[in-house]
Each structure stands twice: as C-alpha cells, then as structure tokens.
Amino acid sequence: MRGKCLGMLLGLLLLGVGLSIPDARGGSIVEKDGKTIITVKVQQLPDPSQDDTKSRADVEVVRKFKKEFPKIFAKKYAAKYKANPEKYGKFNWDNVEIVLERFAGIQVEGVENDLLAIAGGMAPDLLYINFLKSDNYIRNGFLYPLDKYFAQLTPKQIAEKVHPKIMPVCRRKGPDGKEHYWTMPFDGILGKVLIYRKDLFEKNDVPFPDKTWTWKDLLAACKKLTDPAKGIYGIRLGQGKHESWFWITFLWSAGGDVMLYNKDKDTWKCTFDTDAAVKALDFYTRLGAEKWTQKVDGKEKIRRGYSYKSPSQSGTKWERGQIGMMFDYIDEKLLSKIDPNNFGMAPVPIGPSGKRGGELNSRMFGMFAEIKSEVVRDAAWEYILYYDSIPAQKIRTKVMVEGGYGKFVNKKYLKMFGYDEFIKLTPKGWNEALEMALDYGQPEPYGQNSNFAYKEMTKPIQLADQMEMADELAPVGTQKRYEQLKKILKDGCVNANKIMIGKLSKQEKLNRRIQACFVLLAIAVAFFLVFSVFLHLLEMMVKVDRITGSSVNIDGLTCC
Amino acid sequence: MLLIPALITIFMWKYIPLFRGSIMAFYDYKILGDSIFVGVDNFGNLLHDMEWWQSLWNALRYSFLVMVLTFLPPIILAIFLQEVPHCKVLLRVVYYLPAVVTGLVTMVLWKQFYEGSENGVLNKIILNIPAIGFVLLALLFLFICLAFANRLRFYELWLPMFLFIGAGFMIFYTIASLASPILFHDNEALLASIQAMPSRMIQFTPEAYKWLKNPDTAMISCVIPMVWAGMGPGCLIYLAALKGIPNDYYEAADIDGATFIDKILFVVFPTLKALIIINFVGVFINSWMRSTGMILVMTGGGVKMAK
Q1: DSSP letter for each residue of A257-316
Q2: Final residue of a domain: which of B182, B207, B232?
Q3: Co-location of B133 and B189 in the same domain
Q4: Domain identity same for B199 and B236
Q5: Which residues of B touch A513 (CB under 8 A)?
Q6: Same domain? B179 vs B219
Q7: How many domains does chain B have?
Q8: What was the pLDDT predicted at B91?
Q9: A40 exposed, middle or buried (CB, 10 Å; 0-12, 13-18, 19+)?
Q10: What range does the domain containing B255 cover?
C-alpha cells in the first residue's frame, strides 16, 4: 500500500515537472482573442536589461519593428496568405502581431550553444552566424537558402546590405553544388585597427601610431613602452587555442593567407606556410618571446617579449593603462566606443610586403533550415530586413546622438539623418581608419572546416614561442632561424590540411579499418578478461562465505 | 520500490547516453538529416590522430604523477600531525582547509601563484633563493631517501631499497635543476661552468619561470594543486588509522632496537597498506574524471605538446 502511494506520488511529481517545462522549441503561430500571433525565436536578440547606449538603440529598433510589423504584413503577406489557407493555415490574417523571443541556450565550455539547441530540437529560427562557422553550418544543412528572399531585393539594395568583399561568404555553394544565399550581414561590417593608449605613449615620449607606421615602428614602440618590472607591456596579444586570431593580421600584412580556394576543383587548401608566413611568424615570435635584459635594482633580469598574453588579466591591465596597444574591431556603424581622450586609433602597421592586412568581419543572420512554417520564415525575414534598414538606422543614430555618442557614429549616417554638426566632433583619423580598414581588410577564414582554422594555426605559433623561450630558435636574421620557422609552419600546414580538408585513398581507409578492428577486438577481450577475473573473485568469496560462514581476509582487506 | 527513482535516474543520465554514444561512434553522425553508417572508420581516424595520442599520453602522465605524488605527502603529514605535541586541532583544521575550497577556486588561486612574471608568488620565492639553497634542499631530500634505503638494506629488502634510491636521485635532480639556469649558462663549456660554480652558488635565478607556459613545468604545475587539495582528506584517513595502532607495537619495536625510520617502514606502512590501496583507487578515478575543468582554468587549453 505504502509502495503504491509512493509510486503515485512519484508519477504526479514527474507529470508536474514535465508540464512546467516551458516550450523551448522555435517559432509558432497561434490565434488568441481574434489576433494571430507569430512568434519568432531570435539568437542574440537585443537585451532590454542592458543599459548601454548601443543596446538601448538596438532595443528601440526591435520595439519599432514590432509596432510596424502589422503594417508590413498587411502590405506584403496578408492577401497571399488569405488566398491559400491550406498552405498558410486558417488564421485571422487581418489582425497580426509579432512576438520576438530571445534564444537562451545551455552554455557548455567549448560547445556552441546553438549547436546544442539544434541537437536538442530547440533551435532558434534566426541563428547568429560568423564567418568561421558558416561553412560547417551550410554543409550540415542547418541553414535555409535565402534565394527567394534575396530575389525580392534590387541589386542596389543587396549591394547596400552586403559589402562586396563579404559577398563570397554570404553567397556560395551549398551541399547541392549550387550557389545560394545563406546569410545576411547585420550591424555593419567590422574592420581591424590598432588602438593605443595615449597616456602611456606620452609618458614614454613615443610618437602616436599613424598610417605611416610599419612593423619596425611597432616593434620600436613596444620596446620603449615595455617595463616588466612595473608590469607594463607594449602590446596585448592572445593565448590559448585561438591565439592565431592575433597572428592573422601579421600574416596578411606580410602578404600571406590562411586558406585559398581553387574554383576549378572546388577545394580549399591551407596556405600558411609561405615565405610571407615565415616573416609574420618571426615578427610575432619576437613580440611574444624575444630575449632581452632589463636592469632592475642593479641586477640584470632576463625578459621575454614585449607583449602581454594572459586573457584573464589583459582586459584589466588594458583598462589600467598597463598595456600600450592592441588590435580591435572598428564598426562601420558605430566606429568605436572608446574614450578619444585616452585612446587613439590607427590603421594596422604596414608589413614587409608594403601592404596592410586586417580582418574583415560581420555578424550575420542565418535562417534555421528546419523551420516548419513559411509564415514564421517570412516573419523572420522581415525582421532581418528591418533590423538594418534605413528607418532602423535612423532610430539608432537618434539614440546614439541623444546618448552622447553622436561623434562616434559613422559620418555617412550623421549626414543622412541631419546631424552634420557632429561630424566635426568625430575624433581625428577615425573615419579615415575605418575607410582604410575596409580597404585592406580580408574576410576572416570561411572555407571548408574553417572553424578549425584558428586552432590549427595556433599550434605552429605556440611551438615557435616555446622554442624561442627555450632559446632553441637561431638568432634573428639568420638562415637557420628561417629554416626552423619554415619547417614549423610547413608541418602545421600539412597537419591542418589533413584535418580540415584531408581525403584518404581507398587503401589507406582499408588499412585504418583493419587496425581499428584489431584494437577494438583487443579492448573487448581485455575487458572480458578483467570482468571474468573480477566475477571469479566474487564467486570465490561467496563460496568461501557459504562454506565457512566466516569472513575472508585478503591482504588486509576484510571481506564479509 | 524506493530504489526505482535512483535506478531510473542513473539509467537515464548515465547508461542511455553511454549506449547512444556508443552507437553514434559507428556513424558519421549528423545532427540534422540522416547519419551515415561508417563502421569503424571513426576509430581508425582516431588511431592516426597524433593529437589524440598526445592527449592520451598527457592524461596517463597526469594520472601517474597525481597518484605518485598523492601517495607520500598525506602519510608524512599524518605522521607529523600524530607526533606534533601542541596545537593539534588547529593544525588539522589548517591542513584540511584546502579540501573544502572549491576546485575552481583552488585552480584560480594557484594560477595566481604561477604567474609568469617576477611578481608571481612562486617566482618571488624562487627568485630570492640562491643556487646553493636549491642544491642543499636537493641534498637534504636525497639524504632522507638514502637513510630509508640504508635501513632497508639492513633488512635486505632490495627492491624497496632501490626504489628509495631511485626516488631520492629523482627528487635531487628535480630540485637541483632549479639551480641549473644559475650554474650553467648557454653556450658555455662544462669545464668553464664547473670552474665558475663556487662563485655562482650565491647568485639568483636571472629569469622568472613561466610555469604554465613552459612544457617542462606545465604538467607538474597542474598536478601540484590537485595534490595540495587532496592532502587534507587523505591525511585525516591515515591519521585515524594511525590512532588505531596500539602503543604496544611501538614499544615492541623500541625493545627490538628499531629506529624512527624502522617504525615508519615496519609498523606504520603495513597498518596503512589497505587504506593506501583504497585511497589509490579514489585518486586514480579522480585524476581521470575531475581534471579537465581544472586544467582548462589553469592553462586555457593546455600548453601544446606539453612534455
């Protein structure tokens, strides 16, 4: 009786828990009180709880979109939906409202939370896609081709929304071998620039970086600024498996590249083992680990490099003015939020090739491929369109100006919306830095398995760093050093190509299968043997216990 | 009946994922769409992945180091706590405290200790010890191990004797190597280094150690916090066992002319043998299951190809 009661209680408890779990699946359409409510789940929906000006501007755009959506819907979709109730459902299309839900997935270290959501059947309708993961998402069929939506736009509109340099990222071949539009950039394009602390430069009497700066100037400035005894370093670099994000600027500036696409063969190949890459790695290793000495209290101390790499403390040190320079993004819409009184901005230094190279990036929307309802898809597309539209930009500019950030808004938008008086307040050189960053910028790696690119490039960087720390690299400028770095990069590149792009021959596949079979068999046999010995021991113990009725002492362990 | 919820929970959260994961290992698994059965291809690719072998080797080394280093310190600490005449309770609390600190906090704390500049706590200590300090410390440990080996030789226990001698020389090498940057300079002949040694004995380490970045020190740097945190519980268990040893055994050993080392070797260790085995099993399991997050916090992904 007691057991039955407990069982019933448990059942009720489980039912209660099950019913109380909110429905975390994607978009939906419901009719409530005569109103048709379309719900769209958006990843990285602006958060109203954030009180910074940029977030408030974005939230205002979303609020306006929700208000405008009934009119947009009535104009573009109502008639079409009413004419085809079998396809779109028998809802009241004259009274429509949109609800935008924020996607909040489980956070697990090392795993994208939207991947977890996709695996769990809880994916948002609109995914945030970056360049690195775009290829993987397309190949795995997570993204819905946006061709029919892009077909509604004029070429001019497409050109305004998608920068020509990042068009190859948005429009490319899918699993069917045909080209499609997969993503739509939002929030403008991002370029990479060099940010510097004016106070540290002034204190050490070092001229501010400008557009004429070369790597030589960068190194000289780092040397003058760095004072490890006081915890001050010349430049902020990175550490960890994506350290190559910092190196890639030097790679491009030296004239090298991460991956190249062969259009005829439709294949990608890693190419970070060229002579240009060697120069970039040499320079980066010098910044991170070059041996030099500093006299402190009359004693010679050995120092390594002129950079600070620890990610946990570099942010704090930067804010405190203990790091002189760092690479960061400049935004096409809102140039930057840094304080121009303390911080300056310059294009990335010119490399030995005479070129500059910086990353070009953009946040992108992708539509999840498994959205069941075309109504939700259409609504999601309207959100994408509106988010970066002229009316939306007008709202953002107004909020930024009223929030005191008018001088940081791109002059294009200030002019467009009648805030010309703020253009002259923009810090000197920032607009020019943006134009240059867009000019020399290159898209972040987006080829096959490019999400492994940074990780694979980091390995040779870390190896070179370790060798320099251990004084195993030959002196700077020697042929031996060049050969050592070349070998490191070559090995790294071969390994990267194998992992990211590698194809195996039939014979090699067969060899691997045979080896795997042997190993699995050995593991199974070993497991079986250990398990049977263990069972045999237990049986012995039980037998002895039954026979003697006493405890058995095995090597000090008393078993009853 | 009462066990059913627990059984269901374990089955649902441990065995079903294990079973499903095992099935997935034989597929080119796709989150969306149909997965393709590939047989043992995934295992074959894994066998040819050098990074996997390196990771496995690192995991084995880490587990071995944790087990070896976790073996002696709690016993030594328990013996000291047993022998100390005053402030027993306070000392026991102090030595048990690391065990109640969250693993993440322990790692962040040690990460501060291991800071690679000369402002790091550990570097501040190391950089202020002259070369002779390391050499003398190394000799002290070597002497202690040889003393144990000598007693074992007396009793003709050859294998333990050689183990102690080996351990002694390993500890001597490990500690004395901290003095090598001072005593031996790059590109210098050995003879010249030996000739300059007397004057270098009073000199200090010229460069701060990058504990977590250097492949030579990264592994041991990740192991030490685990050992430090695990000493308290191990020590308490051994202390409880030591309390259970009748005084008669010690008196009998005294009568037979046993030295302090003899009592440790032939009274204490045999009593603790069963507990050591049990502790070993727990440490072995923890070293495989609990280490990932700790190392991620300490090194942010590990020193590639850590030796």
Answers
A1: -SEEEETTTTEEEE-TTSHHHHHHHHHHHHHHH-EEEEEETTEEEEEE-SEE--HHHHHH
A2: B207
A3: yes
A4: no
A5: 39-41, 44
A6: no
A7: 2
A8: 78
A9: buried
A10: 74-118+212-307
Kindly state whether residue B195 falls inside one of the protein's structural domains.
yes
Walk along chain B (307 residues) and give the pLDDT tens digit of each residue.
888 999 999 999 999 999 999 999 999 998 888 899 999 999 999 998 888 998 898 888 888 888 878 777 888 888 888 777 777 788 778 878 877 888 778 878 888 888 887 778 888 888 888 999 999 999 999 998 899 899 889 888 899 899 889 989 988 988 888 888 888 887 788 888 888 888 888 888 888 888 888 888 888 888 888 888 778 888 888 888 888 888 888 888 888 888 888 888 888 888 888 888 887 787 788 778 766 766 776 666 555 444 4
* B47 → closest Cβ in A142, A465, A519: A519
The domain ranges of chain A are: 18-187+366-390, 189-361+418-500, 506-559
Identify the pLDDT of residue B51: 85
Q: B1 lies in a domain? A: no
pLDDT tier for residue A559 given thresholds of 50, 70 and 90: very low
Establish if B273 touches chain A: CB-CB under 8 angstroms: yes
B247 and B218 in a common domain: yes
User: Could you tell me if B21 lies within 8 Å of chain A, comparing CB atoms?
Assistant: no
Quick one: three-class SS letters along chain B?
CCCHHHHHHHHHHHHHHHHHHHHHCCEECCCCCCCEECCCHHHHHHHCCHHHHHHHHHHHHHHHHHHHHHHHHHHHHHHHHHHCCCCHHHHHHHHHHHHHCCHHHHHHHHHHHCCCCCCCHHHHHHCCCEHHHHHHHHHHHHHHHHHHHHHHHHCCCHHHHHHHHHHHHHHHHHHHHHHHHHHCCCCCCHHHHHHHHHHHCCCECCCCCCCCCCHHHHHHHHHHHHHHHHHHHHHHHHHHHHHCCCHHHHHHHHHCCCCHHHHHHHHHHHHHHHHHHHHHHHHHHHHHHCHHHHHHHHHCCCCCCCC
To the question of domain A189-361+418-500 being in CATH 3.40.190.10, the answer is yes
Q: Which residues of A touch B31 (CB under 8 A)?
A: 115, 118-119, 140, 142
CA atoms within 13 A on the CB side of B109: 12
Task: Check whether A116 has a pLDDT greater than 80.
Answer: yes
| Whole-number pLDDT of residue A545 | 67
How high is the pLDDT of residue A557?
Answer: 44
Among B18, B32, B275, B296, most A C-beta atoms within 10 A, so best to mutate, is B32
Question: Chain-centre distance of CA B143, in angstroms?
Answer: 21
Q: What is the CATH number of the domain that holds B245?
A: 1.10.3720.10
Pair (B216, B288) in one structural domain: yes
B149 and B277 share a domain? no
B40/A516 Cα distance (integer angstroms): 6
Q: What is the mean pLDDT of chain A?
A: 88
Please indicate whether the domains covering A18-187+366-390 and A189-361+418-500 agree at the CATH topology level: yes
Among B187, B207, B227, the domain boundary falls at B207
C-alpha A333/C-alpha A33 separation (Å) is 41
List CB contacts (< 8 A) between A3 and chain B: 1
Shared domain for B157 and B245, answered yes or no, is no
**How does pLDDT run across A421-462, given as a tens digit for each residue?**
998 888 888 888 888 998 999 988 888 778 788 888 999 999
> Same domain, yes or no, for B229 and B249?
yes
Looking at residue A454, its pLDDT comes to 82
pLDDT at A1 over 50: yes
Smallest CA–CA distance from B292 into chain A, residue:
A109
Residue A560, pLDDT score? 38
Fold exhibited by the domain A18-187+366-390: D-Maltodextrin-Binding Protein; domain 2 (3.40.190)
Classify A328 as helix, strand or coil: strand
Residue A553 has pLDDT above 60, yes or no: no
